[in-house]
Amino acid sequence: MKRILLLTFLVTALFGQTIDTNKSYIKFKVRNMGIRDVSGTIADMQGTVIFDSAQLDSSIFDVTVNVNTIVTKSKKRDEHLLNEDFFETDKWPSIYFKSKSIKQHNDGFLMIGDLTIKDVTKEVQVPFIINENDKTIIYSGGETVNRLDYNVGVDYSNFKIGYEITVEVVCVVNKD
């Protein structure tokens, strides 16, 4: 077991890409009252990114975001989202994603992995693209998730708060 941990540490240290926590985030949007969208962000993304388009089998995304950083432009709503009615951040302060496989897909890639929100883990497929400049690599993609699948909020009816949440993930890593 010690050898596996040491090997994982060495691979991450040698080839892992450092996530820029100041520039990485999750952006979300959900229908509210059937007439308008509420959007917001969750930040403080941390974890391990090892990506090589020539070696997709050994590429890994293992990231978390701190739900306590949620911002929706309403302090009262933000506080409500953190309590037991929604995310229950006193018990589950983070959202986790760990990739299982990555493959070429259309003009980008398709990542299959486990998404854990609160006490529920489900396999999801996330299409993403890569944009690169001299200093950073930006992985961006998204998917739609049903909040009830993850026990986020109760069934207030689809009219009051939509079930489907559109999620866009932007993971910025610094080139070392």
What would your notes on this structure say?
The protein has about 180 residues and is mainly beta. It has a single domain (about 15-175), classed as Lipocalin (Beta Barrel), CATH 2.40.128.110. Helices cover about 10% and strands about 50% of the residues. It has 2 helices and 10 strands. It has helices at about 1-15, 75-80; strands at about 20, 25-30, 35-40, 45-50, 60-65, 95-105, 110-115, 120-130, 135-145, 160-175. Strands 1, 2, 3, 4, 5, 6, 7, 8, 9 and 10 form a 10-stranded antiparallel beta sheet that branches. Strand 7 and strand 8 (about 120-130) form a beta hairpin. About 20% of the residues are buried.
The major pleated sheet works out as: 10 strands, antiparallel
Strand fraction: over 45%
The CATH topology: Lipocalin
Residues in helix, %: 10-25%
- What is the number of helices? 2
> Regarding CATH, which class?
Mainly Beta
H and E string: HEEEEEHEEEEE
Secondary structure class reads: mainly beta
* Uncertain parts: 1-14
What is the terminal separation in angstroms?
29 Å
Instruction: Please give the number of β-strands.
Output: 10
CATH superfamily: Lipid/polyisoprenoid-binding, YceI-like
What do the pLDDT scores average to? 88
CATH architecture: Beta Barrel
Tally of distinct domains: 1
